[in-house]
């Protein structure tokens, strides 16, 4: 006996919140509400064609323009036709770019971090121009206009790649006949960016003032994330998406899928870093160590971290990623004090080994030296206070 689906209510529909991926709320007999990550809700109905026996989907329209009562009335009309072996003659709505992109992301088996990056790219730079446009009406000029609004080369390059993948998916599904990006020369449109050097501070007295300013920051989770970043010299992405499941004893074990090098990385934790983790338990909401203060189920954004430094007066002087260069400079200048080999410093920064096979087995290389090094770095910073 088929499972009976409890019918939807207006209250349940109105209270349904968007998620990272599109999802469905079923009303029964094929009717469901399709909810996109941006919050758009549309009525759809699945049915089996009486002509070719294939499963098909009709789109009735968006909620609240089509109410629950009206959607059920349309379902009744379709079922009446199906009982007479008549193919429903309702015109199926052409999918929007937003809907197709959501379908595309549902097919991708990618990490949560990568998914969040793709969604952020869509919401910040692509949806404002293309979200509501019918997928088959988007022109090459629309793509160019969209890319032209993206200020950073690396973001524009990633947007181009994501758009290309979405339109290839749309072609494979039969939503469009041609990819509007095929006539665009990416190399001439988006020149390759040079290696970026992040602003940092390396003078002892300036680092002292920076550290004191950071410790005065009012938002605790943001302050703790910044100090933890400084103590571990880790990439901002790894800090933002650090999870409790990655903490083992006095080490932070970052899995390969979260690393730029795609190789597991061990970060020895100093006593100060462990103190921050102990404090972080007070605002623990899930597996994320440093959740967003506004949305506890989401990670902190890089903008939040760097904006904090700007508010403290360090605009164009230092960014969170610049802490890595700071650590590298100070550690190399003080090898005679901490006694760690230069290669141990590079390994701690997870700089990639030229021989990737060797590197994949060397994630624990110089580990004892690195444990002492990271404690020395913590003590050196604390000594400035």
List keywords for this structure.
single chain; 385 residues; alpha+beta; Double Stranded RNA Binding Domain; DNA polymerase, domain 1; hpI Integrase, Chain A; 3-stranded antiparallel sheet; 7 strands
Low-pLDDT residue intervals, each spanning 5 or more residues: 353-361
Please give the radius of gyration in angstroms: 26 Å
Binned, the helix content reads 40-55%
Strand percentage: 5-15%
And the CATH topology of the largest domain?
Answer: hpI Integrase, Chain A
Order of helices and strands: HEEEEHHHHHHHHHEEEHHHHHHH
Please state the average pLDDT score.
86
Characterise the protein shown here.
With 385 residues, the chain is of the alpha+beta class. It has 3 domains: 10-83, 2-Layer Sandwich (Double Stranded RNA Binding Domain), CATH 3.30.160.390; 97-189, Orthogonal Bundle (DNA polymerase, domain 1); 204-382, Intergrase catalytic core (hpI Integrase, Chain A). The chain has helices at 10-15, 68-83, 97-107, 112-130, 140-148, 153-173, 186-189, 204-215, 220-232, 236-240, 271-280, 302-311, 322-333, 335-338, 342-348, 356-361, 367-382; strands at 23-28, 31-35, 41-48, 55-63, 247-248, 251-254, 265-268. The strands form 2 sheets. Strands 1-2-3-4 form a 4-stranded antiparallel β-sheet, with helices on one face. Strand 1 and strand 2 form a beta hairpin. It is elongated, with a radius of gyration of 26 Å. The model is unreliable at 353-361 (pLDDT under 50).
Topology (SSEs and partners):
Blueprint: H1 10-15, E1 23-28, E2 31-35, E3 41-48, E4 55-63, H2 68-83, H3 97-107, H4 112-130, H5 140-148, H6 153-173, H7 186-189, H8 204-215, H9 220-232, H10 236-240, E5 247-248, E6 251-254, E7 265-268, H11 271-280, H12 302-311, H13 322-333, H14 335-338, H15 342-348, H16 356-361, H17 367-382
Antiparallel strand pairs: 1-2, 2-3, 3-4, 5-6, 6-7
Helix pairs in contact: 4-5, 4-6, 9-11, 15-17
């Amino acid at each position: 006996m088929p499972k009976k689906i409890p019918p939807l209510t207006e209250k349940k529909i109105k209270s349904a919140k968007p998620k990272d991926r599109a999802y469905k709320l079923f009303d029964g007999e094929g009717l469901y509400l399709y909810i996109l990550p941006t919050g758009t809700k549309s009525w759809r109905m699945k049915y089996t064609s009486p002509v070719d026996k294939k499963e098909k989907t009709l789109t009735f329209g968006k909620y609240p323009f089509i109410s629950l009562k009206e959607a059920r009335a349309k379902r009744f009309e379709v079922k009446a036709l199906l009982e007479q072996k008549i193919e429903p003659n309702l015109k199926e709505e052409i999918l929007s770019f937003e809907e197709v992109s959501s379908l595309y992301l549902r097919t991708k088996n990618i990490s949560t971090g990568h998914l969040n990056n793709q969604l952020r790219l869509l919401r910040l730079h692509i949806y404002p121009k293309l979200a509501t446009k019918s997928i088959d009406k988007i022109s090459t000029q629309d793509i160019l206009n969209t890319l032209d609004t993206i200020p950073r080369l690396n973001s524009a390059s990633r947007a181009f790649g994501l758009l290309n993948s979405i339109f290839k998916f749309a072609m494979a599904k039969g939503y469009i006949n041609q990819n509007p990006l095929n006539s665009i020369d990416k190399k001439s449109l988006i020149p390759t960016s040079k290696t970026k050097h992040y602003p940092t501070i390396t003078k002892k007295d300036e680092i002292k003032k920076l550290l004191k300013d950071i410790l005065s920051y009012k938002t605790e989770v943001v302050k703790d994330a910044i100090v933890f970043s400084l103590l571990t010299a880790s990439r901002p992405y790894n800090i933002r998406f650090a999870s409790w499941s990655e903490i083992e004893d006095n080490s932070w074990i970052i899995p390969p899928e979260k690393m730029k090098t795609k190789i597991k990385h061990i970060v020895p934790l100093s006593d100060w870093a462990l103190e921050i983790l102990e404090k972080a338990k007070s605002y623990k909401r899930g597996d994320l160590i440093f959740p967003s203060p506004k949305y506890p189920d989401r990670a902190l954004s890089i903008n939040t971290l760097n904006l904090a430094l700007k508010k403290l007066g360090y605009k164009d002087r230092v960014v969170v990623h610049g802490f890595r260069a700071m650590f590298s400079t100070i550690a190399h200048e003080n090898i005679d004090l901490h006694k760690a080999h230069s290669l141990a410093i590079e390994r701690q920064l997870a700089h990639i080994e030229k021989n990737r096979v060797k590197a994949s087995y060397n994630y624990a290389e110089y580990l004892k030296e690195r444990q002492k090094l990271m404690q020395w770095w913590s003590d050196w910073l604390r000594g400035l206070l």
